[in-house]
Design goal:
The chain is an alpha/beta fold and 306 residues long. The protein has two domains: 130 residues, Alpha-Beta Complex (Quinone Oxidoreductase, Chain A, domain 1), CATH 3.90.180; 144 residues, NAD(P)-binding Rossmann-like Domain (Rossmann fold, 3-Layer(aba) Sandwich), CATH 3.40.50. Helix content is 25%, strand content 18%. The strands form two sheets. The protein has a six-stranded parallel β-sheet, sandwiched between helices. The radius of gyration is 20 Å and the shape is globular.
C-alpha cells in the first residue's frame, strides 16, 4: 500500500465562519466508497496538500451543530445527509421519518447507480447485464427490475456478492467459471439489450488478472445490435488506466454508449421520495457496521473484497 492509515481525532474548537456556512458535528456515519479504494491503492490523488495525509470519505450523515445567519431551511439539530459534491445550492431533502441506513445511500452511491440504466438507453422489457456486483453494481441491479427489466444478469468474481445479487432476483454469472460472455450468450443467443459497467479501469480478465479494457470489450461482444452501454465505472487520467477500445465493433452493431458521474442535484430528491414511501430499501447492501477506530481495518477489508 502506498500510504499508512490511522484514526485521528480533530479538536472540537471549530466555529462557523461566515453567514452562509454550516457546521456538522459530530458526523454520525460515513461509508467507504469505491472511489476511496482507488485513492487507497495510490491510483488517484485528491486536491489538497502535496503530501499526505489525505482525508478519505466524501459522503456522510451528520447533525447540524451551528449555522450561519443566511442559511435556510436548516436548523440546529437537524439530521442531514451530505452528498459527495456540494456547490452553492438550495437542495433540500427533509424526509418525514429517518430510517438510518436507507437514507444513508442518498448522498452518493444510490444516485450513482440509478442512472446507469438511463445511460444504456434502457426501455421497458429489455434484458440487462450489470458488470460488477460491488455496492454500485448491486444497487444498479436492484434498480433494474422495478423499472421493467425482463431479465437482469449480475457478473462478478466474489461469491458473496453474487449471492446477494441472486437474493434481489438477478441471475448470477461468475467470472470464476467459464467465459463470462459465453455464459450469458448461452442463455441469450441474440445478446443482451443493455449492458452496464460498474467496474471501471480495475476490471479483470477471464484469468482474473487486471486488464483495463476487459469490461468494455466484454460488453461490446455481449450487447445486441442496436443495444446500449452505460458506464458508471471510473477510468483514470493515466494512459494505463484508460481502455483501448476500437470503435468498429460499436459502429457495426450501432451500439450507443453513454457515461457520467453522479449528479448530486438531479437524482437524490427522486430517490429520497422512493425511500420515504417505501418503494426502495437500499440498505440490503450493508454488511458491517463499525466505529471510526476500526476504519483502517475496514479499508483493508474493502480493498480485499472480503
Amino acid at each position: 500500500m502506498p500510504y499508512g492509515y490511522l484514526d485521528e481525532s480533530v479538536p472540537r474548537g471549530i466555529n462557523v465562519a461566515g453567514s452562509a456556512n454550516v457546521l456538522l458535528y459530530p458526523e454520525t456515519a460515513a461509508p467507504i466508497c469505491i472511489t476511496d479504494s482507488h485513492i487507497y491503492r495510490g491510483a488517484y490523488s485528491t486536491p489538497g496538500p502535496a503530501n499526505p495525509p489525505t482525508i478519505l470519505g466524501h459522503e456522510a450523515m451528520g447533525v447540524v451543530s451551528e449555522i450561519g445567519s443566511a442559511i435556510t431551511p436548516l436548523n440546529v439539530g437537524d439530521d442531514v445527509v451530505i452528498p459527495g459534491k456540494i456547490d452553492n445550492t438550495h437542495l433540500s431533502m427533509e424526509p418525514q421519518q429517518y430510517i438510518p441506513f436507507d437514507y444513508f445511500f442518498l448522498p452518493d452511491i444510490f444516485p450513482m447507480a440509478w442512472p446507469t440504466l438511463h445511460y444504456s438507453a434502457f426501455r421497458l422489457g429489455d434484458t440487462v447485464a450489470i458488470f460488477g456486483a460491488g455496492p454500485v453494481g448491486l444497487l444498479a441491479t436492484y434498480s433494474a427490475s422495478p423499472r421493467g427489466a425482463s431479465k437482469v444478469y449480475s457478473a462478478d468474481s466474489v461469491p458473496s456478492r453474487l449471492a446477494l445479487a441472486e437474493s434481489i432476483g438477478a441471475i448470477s454469472i461468475s467470472l470464476n467459471a467459464s467465459d463470462l460472455v459465453q455464459q450469458i450468450l448461452a442463455q441469450e443467443p441474440g445478446g443482451i439489450q443493455r449492458a452496464v459497467d460498474c467496474v471501471g479501469y480495475e476490471g479483470v480478465n477471464s484469468s482474473l488478472l487486471p486488464q483495463t479494457d476487459t469490461t468494455l470489450q466484454q460488453m461490446t461482444n455481449l450487447t445486441a445490435r442496436y443495444g446500449g452501454i452505460g458506464i458508471a465505472g471510473v477510468y483514470g487520467p493515466d494512459t494505463n488506466m484508460n481502455p483501448d477500445l476500437p470503435p468498429l465493433p460499436l459502429f457495426s452493431k450501432a451500439i450507443s454508449v453513454r457515461m457520467g458521474a453522479m449528479n448530486p442535484l438531479l437524482y437524490p430528491p427522486l430517490l429520497e421520495n422512493l425511500v420515504t414511501i417505501g418503494k426502495v430499501k437500499p440498505n440490503f447492501i450493508v454488511s458491517t457496521q463499525v466505529g471510526i477506530g476500526q476504519a483502517p481495518e475496514m479499508y483493508r477489508t474493502f480493498n480485499e473484497h472480503r
